[in-house]
Design a protein that fits this description.
The chain is α/β, with parallel strands linked by helices. It is built from 16 helices and 8 strands. Helix 10 links the parallel strand 5 and strand 6. The protein binds S-adenosylmethionine (SAM).
């Protein structure tokens, strides 16, 4: 496990660190070694049986899921993965319970004494039920749970849980997605030169700050519905000397004027929204973009571009990890979703961006000058050789 490299550090005892490392290790084992084992079980055992019975191969992810779900290896994989997911958050609770007041005091002091960027909360904002009523990916209290005034606990839970969850693959700052994609876009579209950038569903701003690094002259905004995450995001950005403007806002009804941004970005956001809301969010992105501006969403690749096995594999979270909107989102066709929101289909873009942390700057720079196909074997998985899929459109 890589510890976050900013202050607002959650102090942990050696026992607590050991527990977190243990959970990280189990997750790495399940998602790398056991995932390979499960693929071998499918290829060598379950798929041939399916083929004999149906006289054809599986055509969809649900067919693979139905065929494999009674298999002992799949059951063990799934049960261990669910348990490890629960332990991710459980491993953060003891130090968080002890240090919560201290973190809150640090965040408040940063806001009072330093105050670069800004934090604007809206106590009247109604948090949508698809956030307030669900503990998404088993995170107790979800993003918006508040236990105190000026609470930052949900942000600290997410930040420190993410360190355990990602077993070091996202970098110390958990910003591999942001650094890779912002670095890619800067090279791929040198004419863009954005003056204003917006990150939707920014949570603790870990991927928002990357846009400031790559476009230092730009005004960078991050919005989210969850106040405790935004307080934490603002404090975290100040510790890192990044001037980012965080606002509590619903991406379905943005409080920004028409044509005010050059880039509207999101990462790992849309798959947590119901279909109807996705349509509204993209229509809002269209509205607030300037002509010639770019909307870009990092997500796992759509099922239509994956093999049935990969579709099944990436949809696992929808069935077992409290991610009810994940599969319906991944069943949507990105090009159609952008068109429905008002974008010209000829201006649709999709990219597979190599992880800068994994492959380095040189590979990222080369990727920006070559068009690549979606490679379903590696894209978006926390496994060796990570790459990030993103789609969107120019206005
Ligand atoms: C999976 S997290 C996004 C993670 C982050 N963007 C990243 O790069 O990893 C989803 C975030 O979206 C926020 N959210 C959900 N619905 C929203 C909405 N309608 N408007 C704004 N934020 C929303 C949640 O509060 C949560 O912080």
């Amino acid at each position: 496990m890589l510890e976050p490299n900013h202050s607002l550090k959650l102090r942990k005892t050696l026992d607590e660190k050991a527990r977190m490392n243990f959970v990280s290790g189990i997750r790495a084992h399940v998602l790398n070694d056991m995932a390979s084992g499960m693929r071998a079980v499918w290829d060598g055992e379950v798929e041939p049986r399916f083929r004999r019975k149906r006289r054809r191969g599986a055509k969809t992810g649900p067919e693979v899921h139905n065929a494999i779900k009674s298999n002992e290896y799949f059951k063990f994989y799934s049960s261990l993965r669910v348990t490890a997911q629960d332990l991710v958050w459980q491993s953060v609770f003891p130090p968080l319970d002890r240090e919560r007041d201290q973190l809150k005091a640090e965040a408040l002091a940063l806001r009072k004494n330093k105050n670069i960027g800004s934090l604007t909360l809206d106590p009247k904002l109604e948090v949508p039920r698809y956030v307030s009523a669900i503990d998404v990916h088993l995170m107790a209290g979800n993003y918006d749970g508040e236990y105190d005034t000026d609470d930052v606990a949900a942000g600290a839970l997410y930040d420190n849980g993410f360190a355990v969850f990602s077993f070091g693959l996202m970098g110390r700052n958990h910003d591999d997605i942001g650094q890779s994609i912002a670095g890619f876009i800067r090279r791929k579209y040198p004419h863009l030169k954005p003056k204003k950038i917006l990150d939707l569903g920014c949570t603790i701003g870990h991927n928002t700050g990357s846009w400031k690094d790559h476009f230092p002259a730009a005004e960078v905004h991050g919005i989210d519905v969850a106040a405790p995450c935004l307080r934490y995001a603002h404090a975290r950005a100040q510790v890192q000397n990044r001037a980012v403007h965080f606002q509590q806002m619903n991406a379905e009804h943005l409080d920004f004027p028409d044509a005010s941004f050059d880039v509207v970005f999101s990462s790992m956001f849309l798959h947590e929204l119901p279909k109807k809301s996705i349509g509204k969010v993209l229509a809002e992105a269209y509205r607030v973009l300037k002509p010639g501006g770019l909307m870009l969403h990092m997500e796992l690749p759509p099922n239509s571009q994956l093999s049935p096995y990969d579709a099944f594999y990436l949809d696992w979270d929808s069935a077992y990890n409290n991610e009810p909107f994940y599969k319906p989102f991944r069943d949507m066709k990105p090009q159609q979703v952008c068109k429905d929101a008002g974008f010209d289909p000829k201006k649709f873009v999709q990219h597979v961006v190599p992880s800068v942390g994994w492959y380095g700057e040189q590979v990222l720079a080369e990727a920006a000058t070559h068009q690549q196909d979606v490679d379903s074997d590696k894209t978006g998985r926390l496994a060796d050789g990570v790459r990030w899929y993103c789609f969107g459109a120019f206005k």
